[in-house]
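Lab manual, section 2.4: Encoding a predicted structure.

Procedure: take the sequence of the chain (555 residues), apply the prediction step described in section 2.3, and record the output as structure tokens. A sample record is shown.
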Amino acid sequence: MTQRYDAVVIGGGHNGLVSAAYLARAGLRTLVLEQRHVLGGAAVTEEIVPGFRFSVASYVVSLLRPEIIRELQLPRHGLDILPLDGTFTPLGPGEGPTAGGPTAGARAAGGPTAGGGDYLWRVNDHGRTMRELRRWSATDAEAYEEYGQLMVEMARFIKPILSIVPPDLTGYDPRELLPLAGLARAFQQLPQRQQAVFVQLMTMSAADFLEQWFETDPLKATMSASGIIGTYLGVRSPGTAYVLLHHYMGEIDGAFRAWGIPKGGTGGVSLAIASAARSFGAEIRTEAPVARIITRAGRAVGVALESGEEIYADTVLSSVDVRRTFLGLIEPGTLDPGFEEEVRRFKFRGSSGKVNLAVDRLPDFTCLPGEGEHLRGAISFSPSLDYMERAYDDAKYGRFSRRPYIDMIIPTLVDPSMAPPGKHVISCFVQYAPYRLDPSLGTWDDQREAFGDTVIDTIAERAPNIREIIVGRQVLTPLDMERTIGLSEGNIFQGELTLEQLFFNRPLPGHARFRTPIRDLWLCGSSTHPGGGIMGANGRIAALEVLRSRGRKVA
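Recorded output:
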């Protein structure tokens, strides 16, 4: 018997699940179809090494919208986000200010071990962070407070954009400009200083923006790292200052710029959303890959699975990226060739990889030996701006970075359930790993283990015991993320977060309102506004727009 639903959602990543939850909550008979055996897309937890559970791709949470947590009552469904305590930047011998330099005197009374290098350690305790910064630079400590407050103000100004539908500037309806009018009024009400900073954030590189504030190189480098995540750009590339702000908009329990680890890994977020969706009546199927979106007379009427099964629905939502949706799931010849060409121009350019480690004890950093609080937050391999830019230089020519930027997390220090007693998992986000390798290197299948070895070698420069403690590892290249998770070119945000691909241009000018040229086909993934990260805003806004289009009351 033919199955029929009010709405079918393609993809069981967190955005697709959010859309399904809101649609089901409004009374629509909703079905989610996930190609893999496990829900979550990039926000998934899997046991790769026996006894060790990894947040395979996405690994930390900050951007998940508070209204989603509240409206879907996610804590009731098991969501528990454990805060990370600060960022530790280990340095090797000779890294950081040279003896006699501008901050050497302030640093002389600090805590680096003899011959082991220095470190920069910012924690959630404001007083301790100020003391640490003064150890490097009294000027930076003073600027840090002003900078932090200003960025919070900028985040508060821009944050409402995360919940609105972008206007269509290609149309002629003046009502489309109303959201921009409100933003313009809010901008006019900002103090002149904040207006100037906003313009800088929209136009400058992360490095240039931060160099206006700080002199300590490891501080600038570590902070600039947030500006390159999800982009094929370097810290000195214009436009990366906005990406810095994008990551500053995260919050946990009302605290801006707070980052946390979901209990049970990032799959815990997806499972909580799925549980909420099911509680509202949504049906969720795994191992149900969609082969094609069925269209008739310019309208989406359902989907055909790879198994041959056909499922019909009044509305189809796709949480997979814009390329896979329009060029992979739509019958050729259905869309206007000009529109298809625009889709092909949408930039993905995946630039990051992931190395997950199972270890039988903790890494031991020469700059701060032994176990301690410094291992409980993010560990950032970002000693200088030049180091970060050189990592990008490699990627520009189709090579993975010889000394990459690494964001290391040891989640088992806050959630011991992820590994056997006394053992740990280590998550290493790595930049840069370009999707398109120089042909002389072969393919990513040829280079996967060499890439993993490079990451281990880089860690070993600061934590020499890393090789001897590893009992298992998983190396994910951009090609692996494309094959396994379905992320085109391995881009973790389903498309770069560059300025020309944001707001009313995401994914395409004239098509940023979650609707598509095919009636009753909607986009709800990270290719849409407001972009990527474990945010859920895309799925929520898309679902609310579907409900409005059907005349349903939106709570």
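Check your result against the sample. The two ends are 34 Å apart (CA to CA).
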